[in-house]
Specification:
Largest sheet: 4 strands, antiparallel
Helix content: 25-40%
Distance between the termini: 57 Å
Shape: elongated
Strand order of the largest sheet: 1-2-3-4
Length: 116
């Protein structure tokens, strides 16, 4: 019976340590500005770039990501316009524009130069 008590206690301690490590990792990712956005490449990225450029009337695409859930679409495309402004264009899975907004990235952005 004494051996069973030690095994149960060891199991409880191991579970608590695992939980603390998982929570710590999530906290570090959050503190470092880690987000759930995934970079898009290949044919999907090319279609998203073309749709976003057409929607805003020109510019240069700086980033194409899967939408992180903050927007209403499947893709987020960041476009730098010739006048220096930046827009974030949200596209659905069929590359139709479902929204756009001024991109707040800039020199004072705390997450990084290409994050939002």
């Amino acid at each position: 019976m004494y051996a069973n008590a030690i095994n149960v206690r060891t199991l409880v301690i191991a579970a608590a340590v695992a939980m603390l490590l998982a929570l710590g990792g999530a906290g570090i990712a959050y503190a470092n500005g880690g987000d759930s956005e995934e970079q898009v490449t290949g044919p999907d990225a090319e279609k998203a770039k073309s749709a976003a450029i057409a929607a805003v009337g020109g510019g240069t695409v700086t980033e194409v990501e899967r939408d992180d859930g903050n927007g209403t679409g499947a893709f987020e495309v960041e476009v730098a316009r010739d006048d220096g402004s930046q827009l974030e264009v949200h596209l659905d899975g069929d590359y139709n524009v479902v929204g756009q907004e001024a991109d707040e990235d800039g020199p004072n952005d705390k997450d990084g130069s290409n994050d939002d």
